[in-house]
Design a protein that fits this description.
heterotrimer, A alpha/beta, B alpha/beta, C mainly beta, A: alpha/beta, TIM Barrel, eight-stranded parallel β-sheet, 8 strands, 11% strand, B: alpha/beta, 12% strand
């Protein structure tokens, strides 16, 4: 019996079948100009001439660290017609939605819309991305729900876009990157949290996003293997910022989810914040309660890429410490560090816990699911 | 719980003003600091009046924390009953932008520590503070001081001018290994870059908590750049990093390495094995949960009994009273943390000082 | 043990690979410069199909900054998490003892020798002139 078979035998197959909710699916543009129908001519001309102008070393690449596979994707996720992984709805349906009998999938496009230093362009691309998700995906496939793209750096335009879309049943959440031009808890971003709370729609922070800063407080790592690790730091920093700046005190009903950052860092962050806040809370008066309490009130986590402890029971401990009610399963289809729904979270779970992780938590967390 | 006859791997004598260092400087630098009227080189990583910088009952009025020898002796040495304590001075030279000023201040600090601290209590040991801003100058300082066996480590802040694994810093590792001295990375930043990858938080508390990011990324840099392949005898000590972050880091780094190994093929074993062999952590703060049973489990997740080093972090405020260790540390570890692991990490501690 | 014909050699030319099913087993078959390798298709990590992975050489190094490339095409990277598997042994590179997939001995045989002795052809007839990839199970 090989290692995988041993683990499966230890875990047991689920007793009941139910359809799960995948909290992170990446739709892709069929080609570079796929958003052009959704933007004005002036922006098409602008993009043709100047491109997206991100905080980047290179002219057209998304980020400076080359990924390990083409399009950061699973090698088996290329549709037969050759278009990029995640761009072909039919193939996504066959290979993923139908194959796993998914009930809902939350789309998170990574198309560089909020990656630009030109915030007017970014706002135009964001609203275009929202239109494109409906046209190409959610209007044709009811199992898929879209994310409201906003340009966080222009709070006014961002709020306008949220208000325009939040009651539209195509959308399940607001999407932001885990990186931003200032820590996301700072006051200039508060209108976004206000709009999220007012519209009763959650905010998903997906790893990545625009960043003028070095990945590390000590500068620029050389390798992708390092860059991949610091994705967790951006999520860690955003959570810290929101808690200590007081976002969850001022907007107590806002719900946020940290996506694709894994979760092994969460309990330690809670303990560390509590420990040092207790001494220095007079610097952060809007954090009125121990920070870990806000973690358990306002913050959720998707599981992918699930960490792989040396001992299976330590995976279970993480869930118990964070709270089973705060964990939501995601595959990250079609990316390479995809978590398979049958194989990625292998640990003893009750049926009720399995349902929470794979369905019930997400069902109550997201907007417009039913 | 309290603990006696331990080896305290992290205490902080404080430099009160540049004036105390002037006697140890060259004529040029002494005149420069006086004539130009420049002082105030306390690092922003430890705001002098912030709660973390000094426990309230250890404060001495307005004085810079740790600057009074008698108080340090009374609190840290006599108070904890320590066998030895390693002085890690966090002061301007280590953080300066100018290379030459960095070298001048670091050298003065090392000489000041020798004359006014090590000479006055045989229980004290120290780290060599070095100007990482210029690795050649850092090596010169190591060569100048390393002959004094009371210096047991080479110390630097954890967030520097660039990632520590880069070849730029390798002369420092080469000197460290030649003298059998570990490299100590201490919480703190040169602030050449934003403290977080999302920019500058509004609060010092966020900066302090964010030291995590520097520890993890520097550790990964050392691994990924092959520093432990090039220098198989090198040991690195992470000082004041917290402890409970480590298992999650190990698991994720191993998972990523399994996937993208060919990018860094000289990393020819799991990062977990590399860390267990080459890296040590001072266990103050522990940043653990209130539940001792959970803390015990997290500590066991580290998977090695050799890694944790006892420390008080005096005078930083990490615990109250004499509860220097939280409940939950497995008893088999306490002796190891207090004596065996420090002696193994800092072999010079085993020598009798003449 | 019986010989099973799993494909014609022409179906899997050098540099190509294919997923075949033999007696209920999914086997990923690779033709590396004329040499045939077969490994159990399911990646022992999370079950990705190795037949869909990229074949690569082996990258090793003893000195930081230096890359040594050898054994071109003799490794497959799982299409999901890119774990490397040695086509000769089925072992993963990252943890060869704990994570391995079963290797199969494949041979290439002419149609007339197959027609002479006992064989099992899963999906097609065997002709005398053609060459066939055979596994013994």
């Amino acid at each position: 019996m090989n290692a995988l078979e041993q683990i499966i035998e230890h875990t047991g197959e689920p007793q009941t079948n139910f359809r799960f909710i995948d909290c992170d699916i990446h739709p892709a543009l069929k080609h570079k100009k796929a958003l052009y129908p959704y933007i004005e001519q002036r922006w098409r001309d602008h993009l043709d001439t100047y491109g997206g102008l991100a905080h980047s070393v290179y002219a057209t690449r998304g980020g400076p660290y080359p990924r390990f596979t083409p399009e950061t994707a699973r090698r088996d996720a290329w549709p037969p017609n050759g278009s990029p992984p995640g761009s072909d709805l039919e193939f996504m349906q066959t290979q993923h939605l139908d194959a796993h009998d998914i009930r809902f999938g939350i789309l998170q496009p990574i198309v560089g819309a909020n990656n630009t230093r030109n915030t007017d362009l970014s706002a135009a691309l964001c609203t275009a991305t929202n239109d494109w998700q409906i046209d190409e995906f959610t209007s044709r496939e009811k199992r898929l729900k879209a994310s409201i793209h906003i340009c966080a750096e222009d709070a006014e335009l961002a709020v306008a876009e949220i208000d325009r879309r939040a009651q539209n049943r195509n959308f399940a959440q607001i999407q932001l990157g885990s990186r931003s031009v200032e820590p996301i808890g700072r006051k200039r971003y508060w209108p976004i949290f206000e709009a999220a709370q007012r519209n009763d729609i959650p905010i998903g922070f997906h790893v990545g996003g625009p960043s003028p800063y070095a990945p590390s407080p000590s500068g620029w790592p050389d390798y992708y293997i390092e860059d991949h690790q610091v994705l967790t730091h951006s999520a860690h920093a955003q959570v810290t910022s929101m808690i200590l700046e007081g976002v969850f005190e001022v907007y107590p009903k806002v719900r946020v989810v940290m996506i694709e950052a894994g979760f092994a860092w969460v309990p330690s962050l809670g303990w560390r914040l509590d420990n040092h806040w207790r001494k220095m809370r007079n610097e952060t008066p809007l954090c009125k309660r121990p920070p870990s309490e806000y973690l358990k009130q306002n913050v959720w986590f998707t599981t992918q890429p699930a960490e792989e402890p040396e001992h299976r029971e330590d995976l279970r401990l993480l869930f118990d410490l964070i709270g089973f009610d705060r964990m939501m399963f995601a595959t990250d289809y079609p990316h390479w560090d995809y978590d398979d729904p049958k194989r990625a979270i292998l640990m003893p779970m009750s049926e009720a816990e399995r349902r929470m992780l794979f369905h019930d938590n997400a069902f109550s967390f997201y907007a417009n699911l039913d | 719980m309290s603990i006696t006859d331990a080896i305290d791997c992290d205490i902080h004598p404080g430099v009160p003003t540049i004036k105390v260092l002037l006697p140890y400087m060259s004529d040029y630098w002494r005149e420069a600091f006086i004539a130009r009227g420049q002082d105030g080189f306390q690092p922003a990583s430890y705001l002098p009046n912030s709660p973390i910088s000094c426990r309230p009952d250890w404060r001495d009025g307005d004085a810079i924390a740790g600057s009074n020898f008698d108080l340090l002796q009374k609190h840290a040495l006599d108070g904890f009953g320590s066998r030895f304590a390693i002085c890690n001075v966090l002061y301007g030279g280590s953080f300066s932008i100018s290379e030459t000023m960095a070298a001048a201040i670091c050298a003065a600090v090392n000489d000041w520590v020798k004359a006014e601290w090590l000479a006055r209590d045989p229980r004290l040991r120290a780290s060599i503070v070095v100007p990482t801003q210029n690795p050649r100058l850092a090596v010169e300082e190591i060569e100048r001081i390393a002959g004094d066996r009371r210096f047991v480590q080479i110390l630097m802040p954890v967030a520097l001018d660039m990632m520590l694994g880069k070849e730029h810093y390798w002369p420092i590792f080469e000197a460290a290994v030649r003298h059998s001295l570990p490299i100590g990375l201490h919480a703190g930043s040169l602030y050449r870059y934003a403290p977080t990858t999302n920019g500058w938080p509004s609060h010092f508390l966020q900066d302090y908590v964010g030291n995590n990011h520097a520890f993890e990324s520097q550790l990964l840099s050392l691994i990924s750049q092959g520093v432990f392949v090039k220098f198989p005898d090198l040991k690195v000590v992470l000082i004041e990093s917290g402890v409970t972050w480590l298992p999650g880091f190990l698991w994720r780094s191993r998972k990523t390495w399994r996937a993208v190994r060919p990018e860094v093929p000289w990393v020819n074993e799991s990062p977990i094995d590399i860390v267990r062999r080459h890296v040590r952590l001072t266990a103050q703060p522990m940043d653990g949960p209130a539940d001792p049973a959970v803390l015990e489990r997290v500590i066991n997740q580290i998977g090695s009994d050799d890694m944790l080093l006892f420390a008080s972090d005096y005078p930083h405020w990490q615990f109250d009273g004499d509860r220097v260790l939280p409940d939950g540390i497995p008893s088999r570890l306490i002796e190891k943390m207090a004596r065996d692991n420090p002696l193994a990490t800092y072999p010079r501690l085993q020598e009798t000082i003449q | 043990m019986a010989k099973h014909v799993i494909a014609t050699l022409a179906e899997i030319p050098p540099g190509s690979q294919k997923l075949v099913n033999v007696k209920g087993r999914a086997i990923a078959v690779f033709n590396v410069a004329g040499e045939l390798f077969g490994i159990s298709d399911a990646c022992p990590h999370q079950g990705g199909s190795l037949a869909a992975g990229a074949t690569v050489g082996l990258t090793t190094s003893v000195k930081p900054g230096e890359y040594c490339h050898s054994r071109p095409g003799e490794f497959v990277r799982c299409p999901w998490h890119s774990w490397e598997f040695d086509l000769r042994t089925g072992q993963s590179w990252c943890d060869p003892r704990k994570f391995r997939t079963r290797p199969y001995d494949l041979s290439v045989e002419l149609g007339d020798t197959l027609i002479a002795g006992p064989y099992v052809a899963e999906t097609f007839g065997v002709s005398v002139e053609d060459q066939y990839i055979v596994v013994e199970l």
